[in-house]
């Protein structure tokens, strides 16, 4: 049967849905329709999006921080437009001025300044692939340990690591990829002791599971276990880096220096794809041996490097980090007030603007995403835990945005509480 957009969908939006269903993402379109969050983004500006039908929504998803600095941030747009006067993608074989400047800036802000080598990639998944390859080369070992609730991307090695269900969907699961539960040092110890482990791939605060928060000292414990067993520690900071936790990198706040750190999303400034792998001495040995060990036509495009440098500088600026702390506290107070009045809001996880809300219903994250959507907020339920919703404000949001988004959250909580109460009757 041919696809029908939801009743009442405007003409342009319906046409985009039909084309996307036919040629791009049929099952995803049907799923979002069923969940009541059919969305085709039209205009976008700052932390606001407009559905093609014209309805305004606050963006509390930000594609995991891709739009940390807002949609079409005017400074970054000007930087990109200006860069087109001089640059294009560039030639990936040669040294390049913009790439070298971006790499120097990333090395300078790397944890303890210890990750001095940089590889630029077109996506976070590809950057994770490269991090794993680097660890394998450095250790001469093959196996990779990751969290069973982690998402590291959908390219080759990244798609094989983490959550085993999705790895097996494309037959990417293999004995070389081992999983452990989050926040369980004994499990990490046992996995690393089992032999031939090149790396512990650590999604520092697992996003798709709802930004689980670790026990005190957990990440330092993982670092010590990696050292004891001779495995490298790779920090996946694709969602948690670039100021989102209030530190430049989440690992900085946990007092840990990894061997490899992967960043992406916000490094793009939301305008030009860019991800990066930052490598310490041991992990970067291959770079001195083989200058073509990693090559990618679009990895480190020069236009992207210019934008990424500007995005990086703004993201780690002390004024930006100070704003993250203020915004985080304001949301913390708002959530506490709402939790006292709406028992549906069962748990708040918060570190900087990395936040998740768990609801007292197994489908609470999905139900709340629908009610938030109806009340002018786009926020994503967690793929690995349907009771939970990610709440991801930008680095530069201001007090009126915080207040209005909390007011919309309250309206959604009231509607969802009514819906669940009437179902129970
Ligand atoms: C923690 C984490 N790692 C890696 C990736 C993969 O990044 P990309 O989608 O750019 O390949 C993602 C994407 O959502 C992510 O959330």
Could you explain the architecture of this structure?
With 425 residues, this protein is of the alpha/beta class. The protein folds into 2 domains: 39-72 and 318-424, Aspartate Aminotransferase, domain 1 (Alpha-Beta Complex); 74-315, 3-Layer(aba) Sandwich (Aspartate Aminotransferase, domain 2). The chain is 42% helix and 17% strand. It has helices spanning 11-23, 26-35, 74-83, 97-108, 124-139, 156-160, 164-169, 185-193, 218-229, 250-253, 285-289, 302-315, 318-341, 364-374, 399-424; strands spanning 41-45, 48-51, 56-59, 117-121, 143-147, 177-180, 197-203, 232-236, 260-263, 275-279, 345-351, 354-359, 377-378, 381-382, 385-391. The protein has a 7-stranded mixed β-sheet, sandwiched between helices. A 4-stranded mixed β-sheet has the order 1-2-3-13. α3 (74-83) runs antiparallel to α12. The relative contact order is 0.14. The structure holds pyridoxal-5'-phosphate (PLP). Pyridoxal-5'-phosphate binds next to α5.
């Amino acid at each position: 049967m041919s696809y029908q957009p939801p009743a009442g969908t405007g003409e342009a939006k319906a046409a985009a849905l039909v084309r996307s269903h036919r040629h791009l993402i049929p099952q995803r379109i049907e799923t979002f329709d069923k969940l009541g969050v059919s969305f085709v983004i039209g205009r976008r500006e700052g932390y606001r999006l407009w559905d093609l039908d014209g309805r305004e929504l606050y963006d509390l998803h930000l594609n995991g921080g891709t739009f940390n600095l807002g949609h079409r941030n005017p400074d970054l747009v000007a930087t990109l437009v200006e860069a087109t006067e001089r640059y294009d993608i560039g030639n990936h074989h040669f040294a390049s001025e913009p790439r070298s400047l971006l790499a120097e800036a990333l090395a300078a802000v790397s944890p303890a300044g210890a990750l001095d080598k940089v590889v630029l990639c077109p996506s976070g998944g590809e950057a994770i692939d490269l991090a794993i390859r680097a660890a394998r080369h450095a250790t001469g070992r093959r196996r990779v340990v990751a969290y069973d609730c982690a998402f590291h991307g959908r390219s080759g090695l990244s798609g094989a690591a983490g959550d085993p269900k999705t790895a097996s969907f494309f037959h990417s699961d293999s004995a070389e990829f081992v999983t452990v539960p989050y926040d369980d040092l004994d499990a990490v110890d046992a996995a690393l002791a089992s032999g031939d482990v090149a790396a512990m791939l650590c999604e520092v605060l697992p996003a798709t599971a709802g930004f689980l928060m670790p026990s005190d000292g957990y990440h330092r414990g993982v670092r010590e276990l990696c050292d004891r067993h001779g495995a490298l520690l790779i920090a996946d900071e694709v969602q948690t880096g670039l100021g989102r936790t209030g530190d430049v990198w989440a690992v900085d706040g946990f007092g840990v220096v990894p061997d490899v750190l992967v960043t992406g999303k916000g490094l793009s400034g939301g305008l030009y794809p860019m991800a990066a792998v930052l490598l310490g001495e041991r992990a970067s040995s291959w770079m001195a041996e083989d200058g073509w060990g990693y090559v990618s036509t679009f990895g480190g495009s020069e236009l992207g490097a210019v934008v990424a440098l500007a995005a990086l500088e703004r993201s780690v600026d002390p004024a930006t980090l100070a704003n993250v702390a203020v915004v985080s506290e304001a949301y913390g107070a708002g959530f506490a007030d709402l939790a006292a009045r709406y028992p549906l809001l069962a748990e708040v996880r918060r570190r900087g603007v990395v936040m998740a809300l768990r609801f007292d219903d197994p489908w609470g994250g999905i139900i709340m995403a629908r009610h938030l959507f109806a009340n002018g907020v786009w926020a994503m339920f967690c793929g690995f835990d349907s009771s939970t919703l990610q709440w991801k404000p930008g680095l530069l949001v201001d007090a009126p945005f915080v207040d209005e988004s909390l007011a919309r959250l309250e309206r959604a909580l009231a509607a969802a509480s009514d819906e669940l109460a009437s179902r129970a009757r």
